[in-house]
Structures are given as C-alpha cells and as structure tokens.
Write a structure and sequence with these properties.
Layout: H1 18-34, E1 38-39, E2 45-47, H2 48-55, H3 60-65, E3 67-70, E4 76-79, H4 84-93, H5 96-99, E5 103-112, E6 124-133, H6 138-154, E7 160-166, H7 173-185, H8 193-198, H9 203-207, H10 212-219, H11 224-227, H12 230-246, E8 250-252, E9 266-272, E10 280-286, H13 290-293, E11 301-307, H14 308-317, E12 327-332, H15 335-350, E13 354-357, H16 364-373, E14 378-382, H17 384-389, E15 391-396, E16 406-410, H18 414-423
Bound molecules: histidyl-adenosine monophosphate.
C-alpha cells in the first residue's frame, strides 16, 4: 500500500534535532523570566476575522497564505499565522489590562502560513513571541530589542545584526505613502509583477521586496525617517538613545517595512548571515492601534517574534550541541540480576542520574553493544557474583584499557561514586 507522507512544508522534528530545540526553548524561558514576562498559551485555531482584521486584508499573509476552512458548524476558522492578534484577543477577553497597568506576555509554538517552502521557510513553523501592553514610552521599545538581543547572546548566536526603522503614525504615514506611490509609479516598468500590482494597495511592501529590479527602484525612494512628524521623530530619537545607553549596536534600515499592517513607529528585525534569502531571524515593532482595532480601549503595545526553525538551523550550522548528562547503562547477566537491575535503576534515577538498559534483555554481548551505540559513559554490570556480594561491576566505557577500566564496587553509595567518575570528564553531547 502507498505510504502516507507528511504535508509539504510541514516536517517532523526528529530525536536527533529536538535536544537543540529544547535548549532554545529553555533559554527563552530563562531569559524572559529575568525580564518579568509570563507565558500565555492561546489556541491554534481562531476565528478568521481576528487575523483578517488584525493583520490586514491587503497583506500577503491574509490574502494568500492563511489556512482557512469552515468547521463543522460552518464557522470560518483559521490556523494562526502569527501570535500577536491572538495575544491581543486574549488580553481583551480576560481583561488582562485591568489587573496590572503593564502586561508582559510571551508564547511559543507552531504558526501556519501557506508560503512556498524553501530553506528556512516552512508552512508550519515555530515562533517565540513576546508582547508588552501598556507603555508608549521609548524605554519599552528598547526593552523589546534588548530581550531579543539577550536571547541571541544567551544562545551564542553569531553574525547577527539588529535593523531598525520607524513607520511613523497615522499623522505622518499617509503623506509618505502618497509620496511612495508617486515615486514608484514613475518606476513601474522596473517592478516585479507582484509589486506593480500592490503598488496602490500596499506601496510600503515594494520597499522590502527582494527582487533585483524592485531593489534597484527602491534605492532612490523617499524615506520614512525623513518624513516623520515631530512626535514620531522624537520617539525614534529616544529609542536610539536608549539603545546606545544599553550598548546595543543597530543599523538604520529605511527599507524595513514588515509584512503586517498593524505596525506604527518603531520596527526592527534581527538578520543573520548565512541563512540565504530567508535571513530574518526575528521581527517586530510597535502596534499602538491594534488593541483598539480589535475592540479594546486604546492601549499602546510593542512586541516581536523570533523564528525558531531559523534559529535552530543557525545553531546547527554554527556547530552548537545541546549539553546532556552522561549516560549510565545497566547490564544484567541473568533473570535474577535483571530484577535487581530494575531496583538499581530506580535508585539511581531517583538520585538524578540518567540511566538506561537494553529492554530486550538479550545476551550480555548485545547489551554491551547497545550501551556503546548509545554513547554510555559507564556500564554497571550485575550478575550472580555481584548479587551475592552486594556489589556491581563498574566499567568505564570511555577509559582506555587499564586496571582502572573495570572495578567491583559496593552498591551502597553508588550514585556518589558515579558522579565522581563523571566529574572527571565533562558532559558529553547527546546521541539519541
Ligand atoms: P513576522 O516577521 O511575520 O512577524 O515573523 C517573525 C519571524 O517568524 C520571522 O522573522 C521569521 O524568523 C519567522 N517566520 C515567519 N514566517 C516563517 C516561515 N514561513 N517559515 C519559517 N519561519 C518563519 C510576526 O509574526 C509578528 N507577529 C511579530 C510581532 C510580534 N510583532 C509584534 N509582536
């Protein structure tokens, strides 16, 4: 019978890869708790209107990429393409703004966009999202960028740069938009078909199109930073001053537009060398109008999302390995020893050690072979002799052949002895 395959653009994360994912997830939790953020978990499915209204009908995400279908009641539902709209919905639904003047939230999980799969781009991908509700102050913008930078530093990611721009507000952006439409209309022959089509609907996106002709055309385009109203300009200067204060280096990037409509003022991205065309590791910005647009009181907000698939890919390319405790492998030579091995393993795991055995319970030789393939550091061998004398035979699988390699040791206090042996060598990488 024909085998069923996974859906294009959606992949399995295999045991050989998940230790790095877990390391990234642990790091995210640890960094965010240091900044006082709490996790929120929202459903993967939301009413379609949430994204259509929140992200914007004219965006690529809403107009072309959403997984939208009718559920059995006929309601239109969508697999979340991002997390900000869901966070705002939950913030309003549970009146989180009433509990505290500031809400600091993070989330982590799969998002879904029907894009063309390529290196670093999937149809199911994973984001770490961070959102701060309740502050319009530039210090909040700086905190967001600092968290992103700190996360990347904590993972020891290399060759990254922060790009910064401002998209202005409802006062200064409309005139800029007009100026852009005017400029690109004169260059329409240079633009790719997509940009020629979206020129009037979404002219800002023409600026960050990757197609060569559009890039050339964009070079002489008017810049938002030159057209900011005095309030937006003062805000942007203050954000830059905060970043300088924090020692965070950034590049001004007038073509950084973002693909979602809800942004105002500060936008930023973290870009990586070596990822090819999909080089944005994270992106975000201020979205002061979104809470109101989704039915709440005016509430300033800012956030970002990091693409974990791309981060894990970068880490793997940079040779990172997730640290893991060394492995102890228990080998039993007969039925009685096998029973005793169960208790021994229970004790050792209770003492915090990582312990495995060969659950097929075959010959000693095949058990030792599996211990070796699993990359075990120590083998504990139990047989008739060991049971009689209350001992185990401890074999150091990493040591060269010598008198030290194998010794008979008492079962009493075994965990301390094992720890001592393990300390003699650093933790190894995991072999799933
Ligand atoms: P975004 O720029 O659409 O922003 O996505 C953020 C990050 O998710 C990207 O920089 C990229 O690393 C990753 N990403 C996006 N699409 C894909 C894909 N198809 N495959 C792999 N990775 C992908 C947002 O989603 C906003 N909600 C961010 C935000 C939060 N703004 C304010 N708060």
């Amino acid at each position: 019978m024909e085998r069923i395959q996974s859906i294009r653009g959606m992949r399995d994360l295999l045991p050989a890869e998940t230790p790095l994912w877990q390391m990234v997830e642990r790091t995210a939790q640890e960094v965010l708790s240091r900044f006082g953020y709490f996790e929120i978990r929202t459903p993967l499915l939301e009413p379609t209107a949430l994204f259509a209204r929140g992200i914007g009908e004219a965006t690529d995400i809403v107009s072309k990429e959403m997984y939208t279908f009718s559920d059995r009641d006929g309601a239109s539902v969508t697999l979340r393409p991002e997390g900000t709209a869901s966070a705002v919905r939950a913030f309003l639904e549970h009146n989180l703004g009433n509990e505290l003047p500031l809400s600091r939230l993070w989330y982590l999980g799969p998002m879904f966009r029907h894009e063309r799969p390529q290196k670093g781009r999937f149809r199911q991908f994973h984001q770490l999202g961070v959102e701060l509700f309740g502050s319009a102050h530039p210090a909040a913008d700086a905190e967001m960028i600092e968290i992103l930078w700190e996360f990347a530093q904590a993972l020891s990611l290399r060759n990254l740069s922060v790009h910064l721009n401002s998209l202005g507000c409802s006062v200064c952006r409309p005139a800029y938009r007009e100026a852009l439409v005017g400029y690109f209309t004169g260059q329409v022959g240079e633009l790719c078909p997509t940009c020629a089509e979206r020129l009037h609907k979404n002219p800002l996106r023409v600026l960050d199109c990757k197609v060569e002709g559009c890039r050339r055309a964009a070079e002489g385009a008017p810049r938002m930073l030159d057209k900011l109203c005095p309030e937006c300009a003062a805000h942007f200067d203050a954000v830059r001053a905060c970043l300088d204060q924090l020692g965070i280096v950034y590049a001004l990037d007038h073509r950084l537009m973002r693909g979602l409509d809800y942004y105002s003022r500060t936008t930023f991205e973290l870009l990586a060398e070596g990822l090819g065309a999909q080089n944005a590791v994270a992106g975000g910005g201020r979205y002061d109008g979104l809470v109101e647009m989704l039915g709440g009181r005016p509430t300033p907000a800012i956030g970002f999302a990091a693409g974990l698939d791309r981060i894990v890919m970068l880490l793997a390319e940079q040779g990172a390995r997730a640290p893991e405790a060394p492995l102890v492998f228990v080998v039993a030579l007969d039925g009685e020893s096998q029973k005793s091995a169960l208790s021994l393993m229970r004790e050792l795991r209770g003492a915090g050690l990582r312990v495995e055995f060969d659950a097929r319970c075959g010959s000693a030789k095949s058990q030792m072979k599996l211990a070796d393939r699993r990359g075990a550091r120590l083998a504990l061998i139990l047989g008739e002799e060991e049971l009689r004398s209350g001992t185990v035979t401890l074999k150091d699988l990493a040591a060269a052949e010598s008198a030290e390699k194998q010794s008979r040791v008492p079962r009493q206090g075994l965990d301390a002895l094992i720890r001592e042996k393990m300390r003699a060598r650093p933790a190894e990488e995991i072999r799933p």
